[in-house]
Design a protein that fits this description.
The chain has helices at about 40-50, 70-75, 85-95, 95-110, 180-200, 215-230, 245-260, and strands spanning about 1-5, 10-15, 20-25, 30-35, 60, 80-85, 125, 130-135, 135-145, 150-155, 160-165, 200-205, 210. The longest helix has 19 residues, at about 215-230. Strand 12 and strand 13 form a beta hairpin. It is an alpha/beta fold and about 270 residues long. Helix 5 runs antiparallel to helix 6 (about 215-230). It binds zinc ion. Zinc ion binds near residues 68, 69, 166, 205 and 206.
Length: about 270
């Protein structure tokens, strides 16, 4: 796992698996941890690293309900877990799904020694909305669905940081997963555009943080890819720099999804 101090009050952790990101942000004597790394050793290291850096953990937040982002409770079992209302609904609608997928991942990759994941009570947060941190600051919550049926982007306005979940990744093409939709994904990119323009750093759900120069470029590449996907399906060109075998597999899934549900996705 890599750890990177973006700012005196923001640390980004990047997991060795899928480059899944986890962001710690503090204000005064309060702090949030958004999303999680994947491996047990990474989750075990997290509390010590944050304690050493004097980052308090008052609560956990997640961008969406995919299992690889939901593991914060394994590092901070007592912490409250908050998420946007779409994610709370999805978690309630598919109880045990994250645990099952985590178990399958661990079996497939011979990952040993993980405690069972207990999500327990989840606090549903209104989106769009605001969430206070410390005596004088507020995070902004914006809807970010399309990759999945749920999703929330978090803006840390006083530090110029956007934590957007599984969008704007420098390592992964836009992925319309089983309950995602192309139309919703494009609407989220349009909604993220002004937030990206205001941000000095964007932290995607997978891959390293993007600078003010890089983020708009990834956004335009992703929008162009989705336009091509809507128009040409499987023949669409992948974004430059993300044309690996793994990304072509995601692209094939996207093309099949769009062919079966139409360019707007399920209505
Ligand atoms: Zn993800």
């Amino acid at each position: 796992m890599r750890a990177l101090a973006l700012h005196a009050d923001v640390i980004v952790f990047i997991s060795d698996f899928w480059q899944t990101t986890c962001v710690a942000v503090r204000a005064g004597d309060e702090g949030f941890v958004i999303d999680s790394p994947v491996f047990p050793s990474e989750l075990e290291a997290l509390p010590g690293v944050l304690e050493q850096a004097a980052f308090p953990v008052s609560g956990l937040l997640v961008t969406h309900a995919d299992w690889d982002h939901l593991l914060g409770r394994l590092a901070f079992p007592g912490a409250s877990l908050g998420c946007g209302e779409t994610t709370a609904r999805r978690l309630a609608a598919e109880p045990g799904a994250a645990q099952r997928e985590l178990r399958e991942f661990d079996e497939e990759h011979y990952v040993d020694g993980r405690r069972p994941l207990s999500l327990g009570a989840v606090q549903s947060l209104p989106v769009p909305g605001k969430l206070s941190l410390g005596p004088e600051h507020e995070l902004e919550l914006h809807p970010a669905d399309g990759h999945t049926a749920d999703g929330t982007a978090f803006v840390v306005p006083w530090l110029g940081v956007l934590v957007c979940g599984d969008y704007l990744s420098p390592v992964e093409i836009p992925w319309i997963s089983e309950d995602g939709a192309l139309g919703a994904y494009r609407a989220t990119l349009a909604r993220l555009r002004p937030l990206v323009d205001q941000a000095s750093t964007v932290v995607p759900g997978h891959g390293g943080a993007l600078t003010r120069d890089q983020a708009p470029q990834v956004l335009e590449e992703d929008a162009a890819y989705l336009d091509a996907l809507a128009a040409n399906g499987a023949d669409a060109e992948l974004p430059p720099g993300r044309r690996t075998r793994a990304q072509r597999k995601i692209h094939a899934e996207n093309a099949a999804r769009v062919a079966e549900s139409g360019p707007l996705g399920r209505l």
